[in-house]
Amino acid sequence: MPHEHIHNGCAGESHEHDHGHDHDTSDLGPQDNLYSHVDRGVVHALNANGEGPEVIKPWHERLDETEYLESDADDQMIIRVPFTGAVRLRSILLKTGPTDQTPSKVVLFANAADMDFDDVADKTATQEFDVAQGREVGEYAVKTAKFSNISSITLFFPAAQGADTTRVYYVGFLGHWQERNTGIPITVYEAQANLADHEKITGTDGNFSRLGS
């Protein structure tokens, strides 16, 4: 199954783990967490009681329930998440609920930064997952080949599991980030830039000409 609990505790335990454990950090590897590469100021939620950045939390706040997004007019919600560079996504992390406020599924769209509710009916999802109920963070491993060079991801929650509204506490991402390629080689010095628009570069360095176009 694509869903797995991050904590090692059994679902039948009577107590909850509300604090961090050393094995969480070592198992997931903080260096794999893309929190610092999310452009939080531009994260935007549609049909929600908040703006969107509330659920993009640092790793140590992933279990916190004081801030969350809840759907507004009905139980559908969209969260649009842009990154500050090119991302190769490995998995998404979700803490949702509680109980019947858990979304029935999460539908992912890669590189769909401006998607709204009209678009989700017309566009093909990149991948989707059923969401399990629970108070812990769930990890959903994506098909990396479909999320190998993305600048944004849109999460669509189409329905709750019985409630009138959907609630999301935490959205996280694991994967690799690299600075977005501007198309201009960093080895080109300012003194050479004057040649970029003219025939001398085209005749002597065809690769530069293509990158600069």
TrEMBL record:
Q: Give coiled-coil spans as residue ranges.
A: none
**Can you tell which superkingdom this protein's organism belongs to?**
Eukaryota
Give me the stretches of Basic and acidic residues compositional bias. Answer: 1-26
Specify where the region named Disordered lies, as residue ranges: 1-34
Sequence similarity: Belongs to the PITHD1 family.
**Protein name, per record:** Galactose-binding domain-like protein
A Pfam family assignment: PITH
User: What InterPro entries does the entry give?
Assistant: Galactose-bd-like_sf, PITH1-like, PITH_dom, PITH_dom_sf
